[in-house]
Amino acid sequence: MSGASFALAANAVIALLFAASFAAIAHSYRWQRAALWFSASYLTGMLTPISELLVRYSAVPDLFVATSYASFLGGLLIMAAGLSAYHGNRPHWCAIIGIFVGGLIVRALIWGGQRDLLSYELAYQLPFAAAALLNAAIVLRLDVRRLSYHMLAAAHVALALLLRLKPFFAPAFGSG
To answer: CB–CB of 80/135 below 8 Å?
Structure first.
C-alpha cells in the first residue's frame, strides 16, 4: 500500500470514529439528538477518501470521481444542517440544497476539463468554499459569544480561504 493509499484509508477510519462517537452521544443523551447530523456528516465525508482509493483501484474510476466530489460537498453541507439543528434552529435548506445542486452542476460542466487550469480549479473548489462559508455564517449568526464558537467559525473561514487559494497553487504543484 502506497503512502497516499494509507493516508486515505486512515482518513476514512478517523471519519468513521467521529461518526460513531457522535452517534453514541446522540444515543446516550436523548437531548443531544442533533449529534446525529454530525454523525451523518462524517459518514458522508468518509466516502470521500474511500472513493479516492477506488478511483485508483476500480475498473470504473469515473463513478468514484463523482462520489468523491459529491460526498465531500455533502458532508460539509450536512454539517451546516447539524450546526443549525444543534442550536434549535431550522437548517438553511434553500442554501444547503442550492449549494449542493449548484456544485453538482458545476462539476458536470467541468467534467473532462483540463486539471491544473486555473478556471477549472476555481470552478471545482467554489462549491466547497461556499459550503465552508455557509458553516461559518451559521456559527457567527448564533447568539453565542464563546471563544470556541469563534474558533469554529474561523476554522471554516480558513477552510474556505484554503479552497479559494488552492487553484493558484495547482499549476505549480499539481491539483492531485
So the answer is: yes
Which distant-in-sequence residues (6+ apart) come within 8 Å of 29 by Cβ?
A: 35
pLDDT tens track for 35-89: 999 999 999 999 999 999 999 899 999 999 999 999 999 999 999 999 999 988 9
Start-to-end Cα distance in the chain: 18
Half-sphere CA count of 148, side-chain side, radius 13 A:
1
Closest CA to 85 of 26, 137, 34: 34
pTM of the predicted model as reported, rounded to 2 decimal places: 0.91
Report residue 33 as a C-alpha cell.
Answer: 439528538
CA distance 126 to 113: 15
DSSP annotation of 31:
G
